[in-house]
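Tokens for chain A. Residues wanted.
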């Protein structure tokens, strides 16, 4: 997954946001018109910025639109702001009412965002008057441009490069990988597995191990057989794989989290094990696995009537024994009678205004969202004091605390 800096363009209607978007991308990706409210929804473009690298640009709706529809647009724009690393606030200095601009600055400060100000001068340069009304003006770098024209593009790009500090730190996908060691990837393809390719976590793990001069060994476990009366045949097949490499011992088994109930008892204690789901949530969260481990403890305090939210970042086709809609709810019903399970899929989470009612959020591995989206979710939950864990950690914990400790061992963490 390419790590991108998210750069959002914010301001009032007709301040020049879409024109700036087109200028930065060098294409007519956003509609520009003098009619207020032309941008009905956020326009997102992926591009390369020379000197900065891959970025995701957000052209948002005007934050001063009124009425019911305007309220929906403002909410969408604020959600986008949460996901941005850099906020570009574009201001028409002929407008002396800066209430909207000050609200944007306040939100950027609340969410700890970097912010740069662009004065887009159409006719009259009233920036001195504007500066006196702009809150925290002294803390932010500014640039003047003339009605967003092509000649200003080099200046704007240099302005961003000079004043924006990328927070895209590199998180090691599997920090415990050792050169010339073997790693078994247990990939039990089920009814939801697409033909012709691995799932992203599986492909990423295989590439990462190979890139680090080690040896990934792909193995497909038949979970149907493993959970049936004839499990001995499948168990022997699995152990034969481990024994087959006895001269070069498997350093760690990385398994699909739904197979942890099989992999843990079948794998001799001297072998480390962990899951793809744990790997991904640590990677996408920028190494915040400990936060999700702490969230597991909320399971010990659940009472009848408490609510849990299971949230998935994507909207894949859910069939058969789906983890989020079937397996985890079944475990909760069995182990925590009376606890209510609800779901959010895709973008539903960020529109959920009742997150505070949940005693725990159980999140997927996050393999289909970028780190900015996940971090925005974590900030919201932290502000509300709502704990969060993830699929892989939950499925290990439900097998017993010792199982959770075992899957955390390669990461240098304990429970």
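Reply:
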């Amino acid at each position: 997954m390419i790590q991108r800096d998210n750069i959002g363009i914010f301001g009032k209607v007709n301040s020049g946001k879409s024109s700036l978007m087109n200028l930065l991308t060098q294409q007519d990706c956003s509609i520009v018109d003098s009619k207020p409210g032309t941008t009905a929804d956020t326009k997102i473009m992926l591009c390369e910025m020379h000197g900065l690298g891959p970025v995701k640009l957000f052209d948002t709706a005007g934050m001063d639109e009124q009425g019911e529809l305007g309220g929906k647009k403002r909410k969408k724009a604020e959600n986008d702001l949460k996901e941005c690393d850099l906020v570009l606030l574009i201001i028409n200095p002929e407008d002396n009412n800066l209430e909207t601009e000050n609200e944007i600055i306040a939100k950027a400060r609340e969410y700890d965002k970097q912010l740069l100000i662009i004065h887009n001068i159409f006719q009259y340069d009233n920036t001195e008057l504007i500066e006196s009304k702009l809150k925290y003006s002294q803390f932010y770098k500014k640039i003047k441009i003339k009605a967003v024209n092509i000649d200003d593009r080099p200046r704007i790009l240099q302005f961003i490069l000079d004043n924006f500090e990328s927070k895209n730190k590199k998180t090691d996908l599997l920090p415990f990988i050792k050169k010339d060691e073997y790693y078994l990837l247990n990939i039990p393809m089920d009814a939801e597995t697409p033909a012709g390719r691995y799932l992203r976590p599986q492909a990423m793990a295989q590439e990462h191990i190979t890139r680090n001069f080690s040896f990934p060994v792909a193995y497909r476990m038949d979970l149907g057989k493993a959970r049936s009366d004839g499990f001995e045949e499948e168990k022997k097949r699995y152990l034969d794989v481990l024994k087959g490499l006895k001269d070069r011992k498997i350093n760690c088994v990385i398994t699909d989290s739904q197979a942890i109930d099989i992999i843990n008892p079948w794998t001799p204690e001297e072998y480390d094990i962990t899951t793809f789901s744990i790997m991904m949530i640590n990677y996408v969260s920028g190494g915040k696995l400990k936060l999700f481990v702490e969230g597991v403890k909320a399971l010990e305090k659940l009472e009848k009537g408490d609510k849990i939210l299971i949230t998935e970042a994507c909207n894949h086709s859910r069939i058969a024994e789906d983890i989020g809609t079937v397996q985890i709810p079944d475990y909760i019903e069995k182990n925590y009678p009376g606890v209510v399970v609800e779901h959010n899929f895709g973008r539903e989470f960020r529109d959920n205004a009742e997150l505070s009612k949940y005693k725990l959020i159980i999140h997927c591995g996050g393999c289909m969202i970028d780190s900015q989206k996940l971090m925005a979710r974590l900030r919201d939950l932290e502000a509300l004091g709502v704990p969060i864990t993830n699929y892989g950690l939950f499925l290990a914990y439900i097998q017993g605390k010792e199982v959770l400790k075992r899957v955390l061992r390669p990461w240098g963490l304990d429970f």
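The chain has three domains: 5-163, 182-279, 286-397. The CA atoms of residues 210 and 216 lie 7 Å apart.
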